[in-house]
Design brief:
The complex is a heterodimer of chains A (about 240) and B (about 300).
Chain A lengths: L20 H33 L5 H15 L3 H15 L2 H10 L3 H27 L3 H9 L4 H16 L1 H14 L11 H12 L2 H29 L11
Chain B lengths: L1 H17 L9 H9 L1 E6 L2 E2 L3 E3 L5 E2 L1 H17 L5 E6 L5 H6 L5 E7 L2 H4 L2 E3 L4 E10 L14 E5 L4 H7 L9 E5 L2 H9 L5 E5 H9 L7 E18 L3 H16 L2 H10 L2 E2 L4 E2 L6 H8 L13
Parallel strand pairs in B: 1-5, 1-6, 9-10, 9-11
Antiparallel strand pairs in B: 2-3, 3-4, 6-12, 7-12, 8-11, 8-12, 13-14
The chains are: A mainly alpha (about 240), B alpha/beta (about 300).
Chain lengths: ~240, ~300
Amino acid sequence: MGYHWHWGIYFDKIKGGEETYLSWLITGFGWTVAVSLCSWIIALVLGGLIGTVRTTPLRWAARLANAWVELFRNIPLLVQFFLWFFVVPELLPEKLSLWVKQEMPAKEFVTATVCLGLFTSARIAEQVRAGILSLPRGQRLAGLAMGLTLPQTYRHVLLPMACRIILPPLTSEFMNVFKNSSVAFAIGVLELTFQARQMQEDSEQGIETYLAVTVLYFICAFAANRVMSWIEKRTRVPGYITTAK
Amino acid sequence: MKHGSRLWLLMFAGWLAATPAFAAELTGTLKKVKESGTITMGIRESSYPLSYLDDKQQPIGYHIDICNKIVEAVKKEVQLPNLKVQHQPVTSQNRIPLVTNGTVDLECGSTTNNEARQKQVAFVVTTFVTNVRMAVKKKSGITSLAQLGGKSVATTSGTTSVQLMRAHEKAKGIDFKEAYGKDHADSFLLMETDRAVAFVMDDNLLAGLIATSKTPQDFAIVGEVLNVEPIAIMIRRDDPAFKKLADDTVKGLMKSGEVDKLYAKWFTSPIPPKNVSMNFPMSEKLKELIKNPSDTPAEAYNKK
């Protein structure tokens, strides 16, 4: 193959500028981490809430929560990004619409974070529901029989165990957030995939570019994996679920 | 011994038949084409009017016409009148890898010839010149880079137009925000929906987007020329025989006036699929290059 290798490319200056390609990749890495962590917080809070509601006897609330999950689970992530970025602002009153499109600070970042957060919240809600439903029915009945209210039963009996059960799938979800954040390049967030495309076009050293990006994504996802497994060990109830060594 | 000498003669005749008569030893792409009986053209799906698909999904355009002439010359050179021509759609991300790894023999798209790319590939003599400028809504009243302070400017991710803008002296000290679309249609949408006041890109692409938009009369191409970019047909590097054949073919078209006819056909007359004209007369720079064909990279055009 007639490929011209150039491993020093990361330290070369970009065309028509003083920064190096490495600085592009580092900025991209920063935005990837920022989008992912902010979305993760939104997803955890909303997903936990909605997933819990789906298991309560409140019928209308459970239906609403089910609709939420189906809505966000059934639309491709890329399409959701476009909907939030191009369609939603057009539905707002004209003044607000122009503000969102022109003045809103860091508009791409905010849109991407909200979009990815809501998308992931639907997936987490599904897992939380599964976790709660996997507990024996007797636990809920016992809690209520002891005189705890429904919220107290959830707070002290059901959720503490359900959360431990769903930690492994949550780990995958946390890793997915980092990987899914790469789609945000499509609405112009200056994250890692975006910078990779810029760098490839500018330097024409595609293989070196994407190798570096692969390593950076791997670091993100692997760090997420390690953090979650640490939490899993710390919160373990001996003799319950797994007997970890 | 009579029998033996006849065998020798037979072998000699066989050797003669196996060798292409009077042809010099073929090398590189020509050898590959001769052996496989096919040549693969890289095409773009929406680079109006250089290379794009018509309503029957067939590649057409200014560069496709020129490439077809090169393919004719290749057929003669390798003596394969029934040479099979394959079309491989490419994107701006994969076009260079596909040429270097041998998937595509002749890339007929809208590729800028620049120094970074010349490390990976080679280019036939320049057949089109584009200027990087900006498209705006007429009612915005913007005519110069200097008016962009505090405003958003759109461009396409994976292109380097914003760096060009930053580097331009008229943009020094002017603080504008950047907005990125994932392709040219998206970036145009950013400007059309008021997310950005200007869209910075190659002027022929802007002209195409405006001509095919819903309200062409609302948009204009304005402002300083940020960069001059020679656009050319791309081939593999270090393949002098193929490069010479392609160069000579294109130079012949330039000398005979054929290129001017093709230019008029694609840039100043109505073209499919919408039967709209691009209204894009030939630039002085390209007229000069038709007189004196050259394959120098973009950097040579923008020395400061």
